Every structure is written in C-alpha cells, then in structure tokens.
C-alpha cells in the first residue's frame, strides 16, 4: 500500500518530535537504523548518504568542539588547555545531541527523497491550501536532494574538463569554491524557469484551481495521521511535565 504524502509527512514529523522530546540514546540510534534500512529498501540510500554527510558532519563536529571543550557542568577532565577542558560529561552531551540531530535529519531526508512532489501538491490543494504555498512547501522538502544532485552533475562536468579533486574532505572543500558559482547560477536560472511555468499553469490566479491528479486517501491512513499527531503532542507534554514532576 502506497503511503499518502500527508501520512509520510506526519510520520516523519512525529518521529522527529518524539525523538527530540525523548532525548534517549537507544531511541535515536533505533530511528537512525530504521531510516537507513528504509532508505536501502526504497532505493534512495545512495542519494541520502551524501546529503546526510554534508549536513551532519559539520554539525556534529561543532557540537563536539563546543560542548566537548566548554561544558561547564563537566567534572571528569580528560585534557585541559587553559579555559578549554575536554570532559567526559561534555563529550557524552555532545554525542547525545548529535544522535538526536542525526535521527531527525535522516528521517526528514528519507521523507523528502521518497515522497512524490506532484502528489503532495495535489493533496494539499485538495484540502484548500493555495497552490503556490503547496508548491513552495513541496519544493522546500526536496531542495537539499535537488542541490546535491545538481552539485554532482557540476562536479562530473568539471572533472571531464580536467578539474582534479584530491580525495578526502579537505580536497572536496577546496574544489567546492569552483563549483559554488555555477551551482548558484543554475539554481537562479531554474527558479526563473519554474516561475514562468507556474504562472502559465495558473498558480498565480486568484480564482479556484483544479487538478487532474487525484491522490487516494484511505480512511485507515487518516486515522494513522491522527494517532501520529496525538503521539507527538503527548511526547511534548511529557517532556514539559518532566521537570515539574521532578521538582
């Protein structure tokens, strides 16, 4: 059974909220493993892995540098250089937050890579959402994978013209400055082309819009979305109640 786009969004959003609210190592790692398995089953693992690395590597490194070196509650000092102290508590806190971020990022990327953008636009439009807003939301969800794919094509074209990229993160970072300009220019040009195409299809019209695409929405999936929403609200309430209960 194919998931409705709103069901996929509800599942990804609810999972991200619950994982963040729970702040649990086992849950975060379970979500990451489940998302990785689903990406392999869905055939999007090769596209998702580079995007995950681009987002998470600098985030996790910044968390380790900030909390691993300057964690005021840390008492077990492993190394010290002036005011900077590497503490066990700081590293544990940084890794815990990194696991939460990794779970959220992998889930949202999996949703964006497996969801059908035309189906999402049609589903939102059928529920009274303006077509322009629906398209902006759908484009935002698929922006990062689209940039990753475009960047890969630019890199292949430059390598075919003789650009030599040294292996490793440093080599790729040095080559990125040669790829940034054509990437930005191509995105700007594509934005203009899309705007003209949307205008021709009546996205800027103030009248009622119709769509030839119909997205089936079984009653069972509508019930699942309600349960997912309630689960996310319950997780937030439990997180907010926890400090009060412990006080």
UniProtKB/TrEMBL annotation:
<dbReference type="GO" id="GO:0005886">
    <property type="term" value="C:plasma membrane"/>
</dbReference>
<dbReference type="InterPro" id="IPR051611">
    <property type="entry name" value="ECF_transporter_component"/>
</dbReference>
<keyword id="KW-0472">Membrane</keyword>
<keyword id="KW-1003">Cell membrane</keyword>
<keyword id="KW-1133">Transmembrane helix</keyword>
<feature type="transmembrane region" description="Helical">
    <location>
        <begin position="101"/>
        <end position="121"/>
    </location>
</feature>
<keyword id="KW-0812">Transmembrane</keyword>
<dbReference type="Pfam" id="PF02361">
    <property type="entry name" value="CbiQ"/>
</dbReference>
<feature type="transmembrane region" description="Helical">
    <location>
        <begin position="51"/>
        <end position="71"/>
    </location>
</feature>
<dbReference type="InterPro" id="IPR003339">
    <property type="entry name" value="ABC/ECF_trnsptr_transmembrane"/>
</dbReference>
<protein>
    <submittedName>
        <fullName>Cobalt transporter</fullName>
    </submittedName>
</protein>
């Amino acid at each position: 059974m194919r998931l409705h786009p709103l069901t996929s969004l509800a599942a990804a959003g609810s999972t991200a909220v619950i994982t963040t609210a729970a702040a649990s190592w086992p849950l975060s790692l379970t979500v990451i493993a489940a998302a990785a398995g689903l990406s392999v089953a869905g055939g999007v693992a090769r596209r998702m892995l580079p995007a995950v690395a681009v987002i998470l590597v600098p985030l996790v490194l910044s968390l380790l540098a900030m909390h691993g070196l300057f964690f005021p509650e840390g008492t077990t000092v492993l190394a010290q250089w002036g005011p900077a102290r590497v503490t066990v508590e700081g590293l544990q806190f940084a890794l815990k937050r990194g696991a939460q971020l990794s779970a959220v990022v992998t889930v949202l990327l999996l949703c964006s890579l497996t969801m059908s953008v035309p189906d999402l636009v049609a589903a939102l439009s059928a529920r009274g959402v303006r077509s322009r807003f629906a398209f902006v939301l759908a484009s935002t969800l698929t922006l990062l994978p689209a940039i990753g794919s475009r960047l890969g094509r630019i890199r292949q074209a430059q390598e075919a013209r003789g650009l030599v990229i040294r292996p490793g993160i440093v080599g790729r970072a040095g080559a990125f400055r040669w790829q940034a300009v054509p990437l930005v220019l191509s995105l700007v040009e594509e934005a203009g082309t899309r705007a003209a195409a949307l205008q021709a299809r009546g996205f800027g019209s103030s009248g009622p819009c119709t769509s030839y695409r119909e997205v089936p929405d079984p009653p069972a999936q509508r019930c699942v979305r309600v349960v997912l929403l309630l689960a996310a609200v319950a997780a937030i309430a439990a997180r907010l109640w926890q400090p009060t209960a412990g006080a």
